[in-house]
Amino acid sequence: MKVELGYDANGKRRKPAMKTVAAKNKTEANELLAEFTTEVKSGNYLQPSKVSFKAFTKIWDEHYAAEKLEDTTRENYNYILKKDIIVYFGSFYLDEISLFLLKKYFDEKKEEGMSASSLEKRHRILRSVFKWAKKWRFIKENNMVDIPTPKVPRVRRTVYNKSELEAFFSSLLANEDILLRHKVIICIFLSAALRKGELLGLDMEEDIFLDESYIIVRRSLQKTTSAGYKLKETKGGIERAVPLPAFVCGLLAQYQAERLNEKELLGPSFKTMKDHNEIEVSLLFANADGTPFNPKTINQFWNRHIENHGFKKITIHEMRHTAATYLTESIDMKTLQEFLGHQKFETTANTYSKSTDERLKKIGLTFNNLDPNSKAEKNW
After folding, report:
1. Are strands 273-274 and 280-281 parallel, antiparallel or unpaired?
2. What pairs with residue 242 in β-bridges?
């Protein structure tokens, strides 16, 4: 069957839509042709195009991932694509990848012992690739919609309780051998519950308001293998003011004075960075000359400190969760959402609305008041 598609803007005849079918006779063939013509004219016909899966991932990366994903996420997705997914599907054309083939891929990976989180990440990547392949009319059906998302067990984050926090800060602030910069970094991590990139993206002058005891979080520093250091907008594009306690403001004032002095001494040699809005930024936490230092140096100091003092091992990012968990006792979820910079309220509620062990114990103690024997003892 053949349906003419007319001419393009340059007057050149378009390649007609073609389809081969089996028909018992001319009457049935004409009926099928009428259906095919309607499909083509309505815009629902997808002309077969032999684009390989491997070739399309490059199109997806350039026209979706580069525009919509964080640099670190894009780099991670491309690494998984090249290392694993393209190895499996690369020789197939997009329209050859059936529902069964996709199921077979996930079944085999599961049998090989791949973790649920790794399976979920591959599902997320393939879901995005096939979603855009259909949107851009490279395929007619998106078979990934029928592949169930692998269930990832909920990981219980490790945090410090109140007594552990008190002991931690006592060891941190009393130790004169610890650099002021490191003290300020850890104190801000907890009291402001910043992400690491947000902390490293602070401007030493424009983002610090010590008279009013708060800082402004406007951007995030990211480091990728391909792009190096970059100052981007915060996760979710949210700019927020974060209050600081008095003792942290005191430490920050000392450190800010040191950084401003370093900047003045270096003069034109001091390096600044431009953020996503082309604004010049003088990084608060950076090398003396203004160049950003590797984010891993914070992890190294953190791990060394908790090991030297025998504290429970938690990651630097779990300090953010420690702060949020600590605050659930005194502020509501909506305020906590704004404080953490979460774009969605559900993210905050789902993560931090769980009762802590201490709160569960209080429930039990409250119901103890209903015990008749307990009341009798009290009356006696």
Report:
1. antiparallel
2. 215
Q: What does the longest C-alpha to C-alpha distance in the chain come to?
A: 103
Which residue bears the tokens 């024997």?
373
Query: Torsion over CA of 299, 305, 310 and 311, rounded to 10 degrees?
Result: -60
> Which structure tokens are listed for 171?
């060891």
The secondary structure of 258-314 as a DSSP string is HHHHHHHHHGGG---EE-TT--EE-BSSS-TTSPPPPTHHHHHHHHHHHHHTT----
Please give the CATH topology (third level) of the domain spanning 162-357.
Answer: hpI Integrase; Chain A (1.10.443)
Strand partners, 228: 224
C-alpha span between 250 and 246 (Å, rounded): 6
Highest mean pLDDT range out of 14-23, 32-41, 281-290, 348-357? 281-290
Fold held by 53-146: DNA polymerase; domain 1 (1.10.150)
pLDDT of 285 reads: 93
- Confidence tier at 363 by pLDDT (50, 70, 90): low
Q: How many CB atoms lie within 10 A of CB 224?
A: 15
